[in-house]
């Protein structure tokens, strides 16, 4: 059985972590398969990506059985396996949705938070499990969580290891929507389909701009906006958007 499965529905690629017996804990093979799936996601005809988990978990981070004897060289492992996949998600110039079907813990929480938005099942839980085993958050956990919930709440949450319900995660702004467990896949597909029909190049450039905001000066941000706006005006979708507006019809964007 593949550690990661992918499926296509039109312009939407769904990536399913597939180690349900261990709530999709990450081992070396899973990192490798996820990297391959994220490479497939770069194709121009993929215009939205959904990441989810098989069974009752989303992803519970590092497979702790690999720590039984010794942790090994964690720093090197993070750099060579976790970091490339987190960076690959941010580098995708298209929307990436985490469909959080169950527990998102440790680096699995970081993975969910690295996505552009999160839709959760009412069965999902959000657990910054690192502190429970004496580790610090990694895989971008501090970076993404602080941006989502603010510094003070991030400190409280990450240092307590507190398990948030889906409803609490929504209140805190970690997830945008909570749906009944049996509706999650359909709702994620619906949202992804809607996003995939938008002008993908403009969405990708908006993602790049937003990623720069935490450290940018206003002058920098104005300049990047000007540069990417110039690039956006060269897309077919910009021409189609303006034409459709003037012709009083719905635009038909193709992501070019
Ligand atoms: O480079 C590096 O390697 C370092 C990177 C580190 C990054 C990290 O992610 S560190 C954090 C690792 N993750 C955790 O510490 C989470 C551990 N899991 C939990 O705390 C709980 O499982 C949950 C709160 C997430 C869910 O609880 P619950 O009660 O719903 O499920 P459960 O019964 O604990 O788990 C179900 C099974 O999955 C169970 O196996 P069993 O008893 O049915 O055979 C459990 O052992 C297994 N499982 C859960 N998490 C992991 C795991 N197996 C391996 N690794 C796990 N992380």
Gyration radius (Cα, Å) is: 19 Å
- Compressed to H and E, one letter per element, the order equals EEHEEHEEHEEHHEHEHHHH
Number of structural domains: 2
CATH class of the largest domain: Alpha Beta
What would the principal axes of the Cα set say about the shape?
globular
Query: What share of the residues lie within helices?
Result: 40-55%
- Small ligands present: ligand T3D
Overall structural class, as computed from helix and strand content, comes to alpha/beta
- Biggest sheet record: 6 strands, mixed
With strands numbered from the N-terminus, the spatial order across the biggest sheet is 1-2-3-5-7-10
Question: N-to-C terminal Cα separation, in Å?
Answer: 36 Å
CATH-wise, what's the superfamily of the largest domain? 2-enoyl-CoA Hydratase, Chain A, domain 1
CATH topology annotation of the largest domain: 2-enoyl-CoA Hydratase, Chain A, domain 1
Which runs of at least 5 residues are low in confidence (pLDDT < 50)?
none
**Overall mean confidence score, pLDDT:** 97
Residue share in β-strands: 15-25%
CATH architecture of the largest domain: Alpha-Beta Complex
Number of beta strands: 10
Written description of the protein model:
A 6-stranded mixed sheet has the order 1-2-3-5-7-10, with helices on both faces. A 4-stranded mixed sheet has the order 4-6-8-9. The protein folds into 2 domains: 4-196, 2-enoyl-CoA Hydratase, Chain A, domain 1, CATH 3.90.226; 200-246, Lyase 2-enoyl-coa Hydratase, Chain  A, domain 2. A hairpin with a 2-residue loop joins strand 1 and strand 2. The protein is globular, with a radius of gyration of 19 Å. It contains 10 helices and 10 strands. The protein has 256 residues and is an alpha/beta fold. 40% of the residues are buried.
